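Lab meeting minutes (informal)
Scribe: AK
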Amino acid sequence: MPANFIHWSGWIASRTNVLGSNSWGLEPSSHTWSQQIKAKYPKNARRVNAEGRTAVSTVVSRYGRLLTCEVKSSSGSEELDDTTCIRFLKYAQFNPARDDAGIAVEGSYSGAVVWKLPF
Protein backbone atom coordinates (compact mmCIF):
# COMPACT_ATOMS: atom_id res chain seq x y z
CA MET A 1 0.00 0.00 0.00
CA PRO A 2 2.83 2.43 -0.78
CA ALA A 3 0.87 5.32 -2.36
CA ASN A 4 -2.30 4.97 -0.31
CA PHE A 5 -2.14 6.28 3.21
CA ILE A 6 -5.54 5.07 4.34
CA HIS A 7 -6.74 1.50 4.28
CA TRP A 8 -10.54 1.22 4.27
CA SER A 9 -11.79 -1.25 6.79
CA GLY A 10 -15.26 -2.47 7.59
CA TRP A 11 -17.54 -0.06 5.75
CA ILE A 12 -21.02 -1.51 5.96
CA ALA A 13 -24.15 0.15 4.68
CA SER A 14 -26.96 0.19 7.16
CA ARG A 15 -29.69 -2.20 6.07
CA THR A 16 -32.24 -0.15 7.95
CA ASN A 17 -33.12 3.48 7.52
CA VAL A 18 -33.88 5.74 10.48
CA LEU A 19 -37.56 4.83 10.28
CA GLY A 20 -36.72 1.21 11.06
CA SER A 21 -37.81 -0.15 7.70
CA ASN A 22 -35.92 -3.00 6.04
CA SER A 23 -36.47 -1.68 2.54
CA TRP A 24 -33.35 -0.31 0.81
CA GLY A 25 -30.15 0.47 2.66
CA LEU A 26 -27.63 3.17 1.93
CA GLU A 27 -24.93 2.64 -0.64
CA PRO A 28 -22.00 4.86 -1.60
CA SER A 29 -22.85 6.65 -4.86
CA SER A 30 -19.29 5.85 -5.95
CA HIS A 31 -15.98 5.23 -4.27
CA THR A 32 -14.23 8.11 -6.04
CA TRP A 33 -14.76 10.29 -2.98
CA SER A 34 -12.68 7.86 -0.93
CA GLN A 35 -9.68 8.88 -3.02
CA GLN A 36 -10.25 12.50 -1.99
CA ILE A 37 -10.34 11.49 1.66
CA LYS A 38 -7.09 9.55 1.17
CA ALA A 39 -5.37 12.27 -0.85
CA LYS A 40 -3.09 13.71 1.82
CA TYR A 41 -1.92 12.39 5.19
CA PRO A 42 -2.53 15.04 7.87
CA LYS A 43 0.64 17.12 8.25
CA ASN A 44 1.04 17.14 12.04
CA ALA A 45 0.05 13.48 12.33
CA ARG A 46 2.79 12.63 9.84
CA ARG A 47 5.30 14.74 11.79
CA VAL A 48 4.65 12.81 15.04
CA ASN A 49 4.29 9.43 13.24
CA ALA A 50 0.65 9.09 14.29
CA GLU A 51 -1.22 6.07 12.97
CA GLY A 52 -4.41 4.36 14.03
CA ARG A 53 -7.97 3.34 13.30
CA THR A 54 -10.82 5.86 13.46
CA ALA A 55 -14.30 4.33 13.62
CA VAL A 56 -17.17 6.68 12.79
CA SER A 57 -20.94 6.74 12.64
CA THR A 58 -22.73 9.05 10.23
CA VAL A 59 -26.24 10.20 9.39
CA VAL A 60 -26.99 10.59 5.69
CA SER A 61 -29.73 12.88 4.37
CA ARG A 62 -32.46 11.75 2.01
CA TYR A 63 -30.41 13.53 -0.67
CA GLY A 64 -27.34 11.35 -0.04
CA ARG A 65 -25.18 13.94 1.76
CA LEU A 66 -23.73 13.47 5.23
CA LEU A 67 -25.47 15.44 7.98
CA THR A 68 -23.30 14.30 10.89
CA CYS A 69 -20.13 12.38 11.58
CA GLU A 70 -19.27 11.13 15.05
CA VAL A 71 -16.09 9.38 16.11
CA LYS A 72 -17.08 6.14 17.86
CA SER A 73 -13.56 4.82 18.44
CA SER A 74 -10.49 7.06 18.37
CA SER A 75 -7.27 6.37 16.51
CA GLY A 76 -5.44 7.90 19.46
CA SER A 77 -4.73 11.01 17.38
CA GLU A 78 -7.14 13.93 17.57
CA GLU A 79 -5.89 15.15 14.19
CA LEU A 80 -6.56 11.81 12.46
CA ASP A 81 -10.02 11.59 14.05
CA ASP A 82 -10.93 15.18 13.14
CA THR A 83 -9.58 14.78 9.60
CA THR A 84 -11.65 11.63 9.09
CA CYS A 85 -14.93 13.40 9.88
CA ILE A 86 -14.01 16.68 8.16
CA ARG A 87 -13.20 14.91 4.92
CA PHE A 88 -16.21 12.61 5.14
CA LEU A 89 -18.54 15.58 5.58
CA LYS A 90 -16.89 17.34 2.65
CA TYR A 91 -16.57 14.51 0.12
CA ALA A 92 -18.80 11.49 0.87
CA GLN A 93 -21.94 10.99 -1.20
CA PHE A 94 -24.45 8.17 -1.02
CA ASN A 95 -27.48 6.80 -2.75
CA PRO A 96 -30.05 7.40 -0.01
CA ALA A 97 -31.89 4.78 1.97
CA ARG A 98 -35.52 4.28 0.91
CA ASP A 99 -38.66 3.43 2.82
CA ASP A 100 -41.12 0.67 1.88
CA ALA A 101 -42.79 3.02 -0.63
CA GLY A 102 -39.44 3.76 -2.29
CA ILE A 103 -39.22 7.31 -0.95
CA ALA A 104 -35.75 8.55 0.01
CA VAL A 105 -35.25 8.88 3.79
CA GLU A 106 -32.39 9.58 6.18
CA GLY A 107 -30.15 6.64 6.94
CA SER A 108 -26.99 5.78 8.82
CA TYR A 109 -23.58 4.56 7.74
CA SER A 110 -20.79 3.30 10.01
CA GLY A 111 -17.26 2.09 9.48
CA ALA A 112 -13.59 2.75 10.06
CA VAL A 113 -10.55 4.27 8.42
CA VAL A 114 -7.14 2.79 9.19
CA TRP A 115 -4.46 5.48 8.92
CA LYS A 116 -1.02 4.07 8.02
CA LEU A 117 2.05 6.15 7.26
CA PRO A 118 3.77 5.32 3.97
CA PHE A 119 7.07 3.46 4.15
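Next up, CB showed the second protein from the same session:
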Amino acid sequence: MSPTPDTTPAPSADASVRSSGPLFNLGQIVATPGALALLARHGNGPEHFLSRHVCGDWGDVPREDALANNAALGDDTRILSSYWVQGDGQDQREKLWLITDAGHRSGITVTTLLCPSEY
Protein backbone atom coordinates (compact mmCIF):
# COMPACT_ATOMS: atom_id res chain seq x y z
CA MET A 1 0.00 0.00 0.00
CA SER A 2 1.46 3.37 -0.98
CA PRO A 3 1.29 6.32 1.42
CA THR A 4 -1.48 8.86 0.97
CA PRO A 5 -0.08 12.04 -0.60
CA ASP A 6 -0.19 15.22 1.47
CA THR A 7 -2.66 17.54 -0.26
CA THR A 8 -2.18 20.47 2.13
CA PRO A 9 -1.03 23.52 0.14
CA ALA A 10 2.53 24.69 0.76
CA PRO A 11 2.97 27.72 3.03
CA SER A 12 3.42 31.12 1.38
CA ALA A 13 6.31 33.45 2.25
CA ASP A 14 4.36 34.74 5.28
CA ALA A 15 3.69 31.10 6.33
CA SER A 16 -0.04 31.20 5.56
CA VAL A 17 -1.45 28.19 3.75
CA ARG A 18 -3.83 29.49 1.12
CA SER A 19 -6.32 27.11 -0.44
CA SER A 20 -9.23 27.62 -2.80
CA GLY A 21 -11.44 25.55 -0.49
CA PRO A 22 -11.97 24.96 3.22
CA LEU A 23 -9.09 23.39 5.11
CA PHE A 24 -11.00 22.66 8.33
CA ASN A 25 -14.46 22.74 9.88
CA LEU A 26 -15.50 26.08 11.40
CA GLY A 27 -18.10 24.42 13.63
CA GLN A 28 -20.55 26.78 15.30
CA ILE A 29 -19.80 30.42 14.42
CA VAL A 30 -20.25 33.03 17.15
CA ALA A 31 -19.26 36.68 17.53
CA THR A 32 -18.72 38.87 20.54
CA PRO A 33 -20.60 42.18 20.89
CA GLY A 34 -17.35 44.04 20.20
CA ALA A 35 -16.71 42.15 16.98
CA LEU A 36 -20.27 42.78 15.78
CA ALA A 37 -19.91 46.50 16.56
CA LEU A 38 -16.53 46.66 14.80
CA LEU A 39 -17.93 45.05 11.65
CA ALA A 40 -20.96 47.37 11.71
CA ARG A 41 -18.76 50.49 12.15
CA HIS A 42 -16.86 49.59 9.02
CA GLY A 43 -19.81 48.32 6.98
CA ASN A 44 -18.43 44.79 6.76
CA GLY A 45 -20.01 41.40 7.30
CA PRO A 46 -18.15 38.38 8.69
CA GLU A 47 -18.25 36.28 5.51
CA HIS A 48 -15.08 37.67 3.91
CA PHE A 49 -13.03 37.11 7.06
CA LEU A 50 -14.48 33.63 7.69
CA SER A 51 -13.62 32.65 4.11
CA ARG A 52 -10.03 33.84 4.45
CA HIS A 53 -9.68 32.05 7.80
CA VAL A 54 -11.03 28.67 6.67
CA CYS A 55 -8.95 28.75 3.47
CA GLY A 56 -5.68 29.25 5.36
CA ASP A 57 -5.07 32.98 4.93
CA TRP A 58 -4.15 33.73 8.53
CA GLY A 59 -3.95 37.48 7.94
CA ASP A 60 -1.68 39.61 10.10
CA VAL A 61 -0.31 37.08 12.61
CA PRO A 62 3.35 36.63 13.54
CA ARG A 63 5.15 33.94 11.53
CA GLU A 64 5.31 31.62 14.55
CA ASP A 65 1.50 31.79 14.93
CA ALA A 66 1.06 31.09 11.22
CA LEU A 67 3.31 28.05 11.52
CA ALA A 68 1.34 26.90 14.58
CA ASN A 69 -1.87 27.28 12.56
CA ASN A 70 -0.37 25.16 9.78
CA ALA A 71 0.51 22.48 12.32
CA ALA A 72 -3.00 22.73 13.81
CA LEU A 73 -4.44 21.59 10.49
CA GLY A 74 -2.95 18.18 11.30
CA ASP A 75 -2.95 18.04 15.08
CA ASP A 76 -6.39 19.56 15.70
CA THR A 77 -5.31 22.43 17.97
CA ARG A 78 -6.49 26.05 18.03
CA ILE A 79 -6.28 28.21 14.89
CA LEU A 80 -5.93 32.01 15.17
CA SER A 81 -6.27 34.56 12.36
CA SER A 82 -5.98 38.32 12.65
CA TYR A 83 -7.31 40.84 10.13
CA TRP A 84 -7.41 44.59 9.78
CA VAL A 85 -10.96 45.83 9.14
CA GLN A 86 -11.44 49.09 7.29
CA GLY A 87 -14.51 50.37 5.49
CA ASP A 88 -14.53 52.04 2.09
CA GLY A 89 -13.33 55.62 2.35
CA GLN A 90 -12.39 55.24 6.03
CA ASP A 91 -8.97 56.12 7.41
CA GLN A 92 -9.28 54.23 10.69
CA ARG A 93 -8.80 50.49 10.78
CA GLU A 94 -9.29 48.05 13.62
CA LYS A 95 -8.10 44.53 14.35
CA LEU A 96 -10.46 41.53 14.26
CA TRP A 97 -9.47 38.08 15.48
CA LEU A 98 -10.97 34.74 14.46
CA ILE A 99 -10.25 31.76 16.70
CA THR A 100 -11.30 28.21 15.88
CA ASP A 101 -10.96 26.05 18.97
CA ALA A 102 -9.43 22.60 19.04
CA GLY A 103 -11.72 19.94 17.63
CA HIS A 104 -12.05 21.35 14.10
CA ARG A 105 -11.16 18.00 12.54
CA SER A 106 -14.04 16.27 14.30
CA GLY A 107 -16.46 19.11 13.61
CA ILE A 108 -17.14 19.61 17.30
CA THR A 109 -15.77 23.11 17.63
CA VAL A 110 -16.56 26.81 17.73
CA THR A 111 -15.16 29.66 15.65
CA THR A 112 -15.32 33.00 17.45
CA LEU A 113 -14.99 36.47 15.94
CA LEU A 114 -13.72 38.89 18.58
CA CYS A 115 -11.69 42.02 19.21
CA PRO A 116 -8.26 41.50 20.80
CA SER A 117 -9.43 43.47 23.84
CA GLU A 118 -12.15 40.83 24.41
CA TYR A 119 -9.70 37.91 24.65
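CB comment: Residues 1-10 have pLDDT under 50 and may be disordered.
No objections, moving on.
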